[in-house]
Structure prediction request, 692 residues.
Amino acid sequence: MNVAYGQTIDYVIVVVYFVLILGFGSLFGRYTKSTRDFFFSGQRFSWWLIAFSCVATVVGSYSFIKYAAAGYRYGLSSTMSYLNDWFLVPLFMLGWLPIIYYSRVTSIPEYFEKRFSRPTRVMAVIFILVYLTGYIGINLYTLGVAMNAIIPAFGVFQWAGMIAVIAAIYVTFGGQTAVIMTDLAQGFLLLGAGVLLLYLGIRYLGQHNGQGLSGLAAFWQGLSVEHRLPYSGLSSPEKFPMAGIFWQDLFGSSMFFYFANQGLIMRFLAVKSVAEGRKAIIAVVLFLMPLAALSVGNAGWVGRSMASFGLIPANTEPNQIFMVVAELVARPGVFGLILAALTAALMSTVDTLINAVSAIAVNDIWRPFVAPGRSDGHYLAAARVSSIVFTILGLVLVPLYMSFESIYVAHGAFTAAISPPIIVVVVLGILWKRFSPVAAFLTLLLGGFLVGLSLSFPDLIAPLADFHGMEPGTGYNYMRALYGFLVCSAVGVGASLVWPHKDPASIRGLWVGGIQQARRMFKGSEPNDQEPGLKIRLVLEQGGNAAPNHQDDLPIITMSPDSAQNMKARAGDLVYVADKRWWLGGLRSLHARLAIADGLGKRVLIAAGAIEDSRLNVGEQVLVEKIL
Amino acid sequence: MNWVQLAYEYLVGGLFFGVTLFLCFRAGAAQRSNWSDRRTLIISLLGLAGYFAVHLGWILAASA
Prediction:
């Protein structure tokens, strides 16, 4: 039987939070006038907006419950999953990010068609669509389970339905901008609440340990040496071995997240430049992920210390530890804030998934196959409809997950089977010019089959598990990512030796060797970013050339030679103009091409239409910087 | 103690890190003449060193 946590004030805070997020997200509907806005927010945002929203997406449904339980069982090593992503960062920053940004791909399947072939794209669309739709359902389901455990007055499906409606409304109106802005708020909330919970927990330990120890000393001494260490054993405990976590989380979850997650790719396509995207990923992996690891796991660590001092029963159920500790240390009201953070973690993952699946549906099915050649307004309407349709589909799956565990298990198995082949195709596609279209297709098909086969015949994984000293069962599951990585790589490399690769001229910009060409194509001329220039403040005035550049739809801005010299910019360079208020994060901004004219002093001229679209204010200072 | 795990993570992960970094520069995706790429390289290496130092210090502190 469920036990309700918290008091009326806490529930009121959660309800107020829902209303605020709904209203806040819906505000951004006016910034969405095209599919580029709906899916990529007009590529205008600053690194910190993207970084915080990414962390809110990473910390997903059940993270607080799951990692608090791991922290209670295994101590500080619960952070392992969040602290090993740095190994992937160079390939992301120097390879994958420039490729997707400069080649203007909108999705993984589209990249697959450009880099390989249409059949590879079709297969990827099927894989990713099934995965994403099922994953929306799983997130809504786990969210319903988590909320039902806290406030049993509403059932699992009712909770899932409420959250789905809220997320669907603001995603449908505000698109990616609403997702990023609400995720920013939710990221702050969940990280802040996590840190607050740690502070309150340590303070509580200081007040109640009974031995006169300070809070920090009590916290540390309440943990055994084993619970203080950053890693668990290499092959033990059975359900949390370090080597298993390393392969499953780093080469399974994290690689899929950074290189194949449609929601994350769209997030990084919303930054104002590649350099800004690099700053965002550095902030995420170097600073925010450790903070997230602390936020989601600390209730378990504090709980373990409390159990050592007899402040909670030693046999407390690990899956309950987050709620037990939070309710014990937080006053009414503060507990409500922590509950709101829990729902923030849940909702910020669901909204990203809804926007991502809508992008796949429109850009990879509707636009190329069903209704090609229509207006952008038509595709924007299709994007909004598909957001609603896929939310409903995800919601329909909730009662199925509730009734048939086999469906839940089947989705997990499907995800385990498709992740390694997609990751391998992306990584080999980025790094190896000779990776051929037939090889990519076979890697998805045969690689996926071989990984799927290991689910029925786990002994296929035995050599790898035995090598690491892991037992059959859970140990095999952990090593499936390594097995998948190896067999898919073998299929991909082997097939590439047999079937011919594409003409290098046709894959310019789609692998690491063609990025410099992609930069030239993106700009339309030779890039000018060998040395950095200053970011300068100028007064915005209406005027100058009203016609967009002939090469693209970018407006033209005009400034004096001195201003251009300060920016180390030349005529024709890509520049970025933003409101001087940094905290808007680029919400009011535009990309443009630079023209230079004498006699402008500290003024910059932009045509009326472009000013209106960017929401910049005439007569006020703006910040201008060179992009490329 | 965690020395084997530390070595495992930084040898295997470091291999992936080093190989992908090398390939990006060798293929011309990044150029040392470009200030942004140069800065990215330095931050990548500092980040790796920073994570290693944190893990190392953490193990020592836990064992003390």
